[in-house]
Design a protein that fits this description.
By secondary structure, the chain is an alpha+beta fold. It is built from 10 helices and 19 strands. The longest helix is centred in the N-terminal third of the chain and has 24 residues. Flavin-adenine dinucleotide binds next to helix 1, helix 2, strand 13, strand 17 and helix 10.
Length: about 375
């Protein structure tokens, strides 16, 4: 196969870039697609995330973003079934739900109850007695607890499956770092990489936190920056807890299958700083242990840093460029890019193939004149 001429060139090999290629190829198998990614990028968000599929715990109003997240959660079981079948890579996924201790949400507890009821969100309020039966491992200071019907995925396995699915579907995965572009009038002709030019009919910029750097090469200014998250993973028996826990400034997510529990996370506006600070990790564990005391003695497996791509208004940027005839964006998925993957892939495939009737103005690149 010609390695330098494609119908669609996706720049970015995180969950966003690969899922767009996956959906496009399933929708239109004749397309010749390449996914370009920087293989040495250890800060990519897709492998750094906790894998919470949490539209209900993360959102507090029923705006268009909330609805998009909710649709994506609903699509997850079918999306993973298809992905696992194409890739033959297993992905741990659970719908056991999340727990929110009232002690962590004191000021907003009543508002949350009203929001959950008014939006028909699956949830239960557990009395202190019920918490003792259903979740005896929680600190007794947690008070009543809300169970919320949402999900959890092992995002590293999901990323592995997406990369393998791309290969199995005949998508070219090129471990290439894009450093520039050539243009032909108001269109992009090629992406310039360390291993030569990659020509395409259409280009998709899906490079997470690095999207603004690449756009700058095209003289486009995306108001998007990395928000750093430090995280860690500790060893606790799989059977210890099935739920994802959302506390104040902390969450604890079960990865199951002997992979322990992920504890997150900081939100730091510090550019592309890759450092991991021991005292920050100690503080994350101490905060989490306030609601889950067993964490105090759980052995640390690893800690890491990742970068969330955050647009100025914290909304995703998804759609066609107004400045280049053949450029599309999918970036800025900030704290929810794992959750948004299935719906985002459908949405972008529809936009790129020009089959989508109903674009969402809140997500449009036109809001930033891109
Ligand atoms: C600590 C942390 C916790 C999170 N937890 C959750 C969670 O629980 N649930 C959830 O839904 N979301 C979560 N997120 C958010 C989610 O991880 C992101 O929104 C999502 O992964 C973004 O995916 P992406 O593919 O756009 O970006 P990335 O995964 O960052 O990928 C960007 C890609 O672009 C490539 N690239 C960059 N520059 C170039 C270049 N010049 N040339 C070629 N390729 C390039 C990189 O190599 C990389 O492959 C979390 C994020 C972090 C950091």
């Amino acid at each position: 196969m010609d390695n330098s001429n494609f119908d669609i060139v996706v720049i970015g090999s995180g969950v966003i870039g690969h899922s767009i290629a996956f959906r496009l190829k399933q929708d239109a198998p004749q397309l010749k697609i390449a996914v370009l990614g920087d293989p040495v990028n250890s800060l990519q968000a897709s492998r750094a995330a906790a894998g919470m599929l949490a539209p209900f715990c993360e959102c507090d109003r029923a705006d268009r973003f909330f609805k998009f997240c909710r649709e994506s959660l609903d699509k997850f079981p079918e999306f993973l079934k298809e992905l696992v079948s194409v890739s033959e890579v297993s992905v741990h996924f659970s719908f056991e739900g999340s727990l929110m201790p009232s002690s962590s949400y004191q000021e907003t507890w009543e508002e949350r109850k009203v929001f959950f009821a008014s939006e028909d969100i699956p949830h239960e309020i557990w009395s202190i007695e019920k918490v003792r039966q259903k979740a005896p491992y929680l600190s007794k200071d947690c008070g009543e607890v809300m169970w919320v019907g949402e999900g959890q995925v092992n995002n590293r396995q999901m990323h592995d499956a997406l990369m393998q699915a791309s290969k199995n579907l005949g998508i070219r995965v090129l471990e290439a770092n894009v450093s520039g572009f050539t243009r032909k009038g108001s269109a992009i002709a090629s992406a310039v990489t360390d291993s030569g030019h990659i020509y395409g009919e259409q280009f998709v910029l899906a490079s997470g936190s690095w999207s603004s750097q690449l756009a700058r090469v095209l003289e486009v200014s995306i108001p998007l920056k990395p928000i750093k998250g430090q995280m860690c993973r500790v060893q606790l028996d799989d059977q210890f807890m099935n739920y994802t826990l959302h506390g104040k400034m902390t969450y604890i997510a079960p990865w199951r299958e002997g992979n322990g529990f992920v504890i997150g996370s900081t939100m730091e506006d510090r550019g592309f700083d890759p450092s991991i600070e021991n005292e920050v990790i100690d503080r994350l564990i101490a905060n989490a242990a306030e609601i889950l005391p067993s964490l105090k003695t759980a052995p640390l497996i690893e800690s890491w840093t990742g970068l969330r791509p955050a647009a100025e208004d914290l909304m995703p940027i998804m759609g066609k460029s107004g400045r280049y005839d053949n450029l599309f964006y999918s970036s800025g998925h900030f704290r929810n890019g794992i959750l948004l993957t299935p719906n985002q892939a459908d949405y972008m495939s529809g936009i790129i193939r020009d089959t989508l009737d109903d674009e969402t103005p809140e997500f449009s690149p036109s809001r930033y004149n891109l």
